[in-house]
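FORM 12-B: Structure-to-Sequence Request
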C-alpha cells in the first residue's frame, strides 16, 4: 500500500473516487460546500461526483464498480448509501465512526447520529458478502484547531464541531477538564485527520477486514493535553475541573434552559470521563511504515499565524 497518498476525510456532498492498489475506493461526504469544485482532489487523480443520497438508483449508478466505500455521512443518508453499496456488490464498507469503541456507547446515546442503526444494517449484510470495519481513532486533533473541526469540514452536523466546543479554548486560554472517580483527568486517544487517512489507506488492501481496527496518534490524559496548549501559548489556561457529579448537574441546568449545544458539549465531556475515547491496543499503528504526527507539533503548526502576540 502506498501510504504517501492518504484518504481525505473532510466532507463534501459528493462521492470521491480513487484507486488504492487494485481497489476502487469511493468516499462519501456531506457538507455545505457540495457545489464547490475540489481541485486538490482532482489533482491527485480523484473523480468528484455530486450526488443525492435520497436517490437510490442514482447512488447505485455512481457506486457501480466500486470495491470499497468509506463513509463520512450519518443518519438516513448513510443507511441509503449502505443499501445501495450492498445492491451493487461493494465488497467493503467503512461507516462514519472514527471515534472510540462502539461497545462503550450507551443504548440511548445523544451523540449517536444514527451510528447504531448503520452498524446494525452492516451486520445484516456482512454474511451476504459485504465486509465492514469500524475505524477507531479517538478524538481528532482538528477539534483543537483554529475554527474547530468544522474548519476542516469534519463533524459539521455534530453540533459540537466549533472552536472551543471540546475541552480546549486555545484562543481564549480556557480549558474544561473532566476527571474520573479516581480524581485523575480523563485519558483519550487523539489522532490527526491526515494520519487517519493514511492509516485507512493502509488498511484498504488488507486480505480480510476485521470488524474493528484501531489507530492512535497519541494517548494522553487531558491535563497533559492542556499543558501542551499552555506551553504553545506561553501562558497558563483558566482551568475548570469537572467530575461526573458536576457534569450531571450542569447537564440538568442546560436541559432546563433548553441549551441544546450546551447539552451536547457536556455530554461529550461525560463520554470522555467514561473512557469512550480511550483504548490501548492500536493495531493499525503496527501495520504502517510512518510515525503519526505528535500533538504538540501539530498544534503549533495549526495555530501558527492565527494568534496575536501576547
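FORM 12-B RESPONSE
SEQUENCE OUT:
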Amino acid at each position: 500500500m502506498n501510504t504517501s497518498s492518504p484518504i481525505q476525510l473532510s466532507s463534501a456532498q459528493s462521492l470521491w473516487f480513487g484507486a488504492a492498489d487494485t481497489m476502487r475506493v469511493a468516499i462519501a461526504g456531506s457538507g455545505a460546500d457540495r457545489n464547490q469544485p475540489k481541485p486538490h482532489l482532482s489533482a491527485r487523480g480523484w473523480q468528484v461526483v455530486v450526488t443525492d443520497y435520497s436517490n437510490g438508483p442514482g447512488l447505485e449508478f455512481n457506486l457501480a464498480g466500486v470495491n470499497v466505500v468509506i463513509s463520512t455521512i450519518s443518519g438516513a443518508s448513510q443507511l441509503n448509501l449502505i443499501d445501495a453499496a450492498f445492491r451493487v456488490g461493494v465488497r467493503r464498507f467503512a461507516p462514519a465512526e472514527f471515534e472510540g469503541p462502539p461497545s462503550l456507547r450507551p443504548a440511548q446515546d445523544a451523540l449517536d447520529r444514527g451510528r447504531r442503526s448503520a452498524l446494525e444494517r452492516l451486520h445484516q449484510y456482512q454474511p451476504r458478502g459485504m465486509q465492514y470495519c469500524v475505524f477507531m481513532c479517538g478524538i481528532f486533533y482538528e477539534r483543537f484547531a483554529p475554527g474547530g473541526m468544522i474548519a476542516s469540514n469534519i463533524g459539521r452536523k455534530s453540533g459540537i464541531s466549533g472552536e472551543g466546543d471540546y475541552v480546549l479554548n486555545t484562543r481564549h486560554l480556557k480549558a474544561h477538564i473532566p476527571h474520573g472517580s479516581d480524581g485523575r483527568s480523563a485519558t483519550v486517544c487523539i489522532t490527526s485527520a491526515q494520519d487517519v487517512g493514511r492509516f485507512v489507506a493502509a488498511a484498504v488492501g488488507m486480505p480480510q477486514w476485521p470488524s474493528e481496527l484501531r489507530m492512535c496518534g497519541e494517548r494522553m490524559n487531558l491535563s497533559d493535553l492542556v499543558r501542551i496548549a499552555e506551553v504553545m501559548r506561553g501562558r497558563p489556561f483558566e482551568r475548570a475541573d469537572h467530575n461526573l457529579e458536576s457534569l450531571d448537574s450542569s447537564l440538568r441546568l442546560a436541559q432546563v434552559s433548553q441549551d441544546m449545544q450546551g447539552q451536547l458539549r457536556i455530554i461529550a465531556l461525560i463520554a470522555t470521563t467514561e473512557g469512550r475515547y480511550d483504548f490501548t491496543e492500536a493495531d493499525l499503528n503496527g501495520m504502517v511504515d510512518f510515525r503519526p504526527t505528535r500533538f504538540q507539533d501539530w498544534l503549533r503548526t495549526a495555530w501558527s499565524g492565527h494568534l496575536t502576540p501576547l
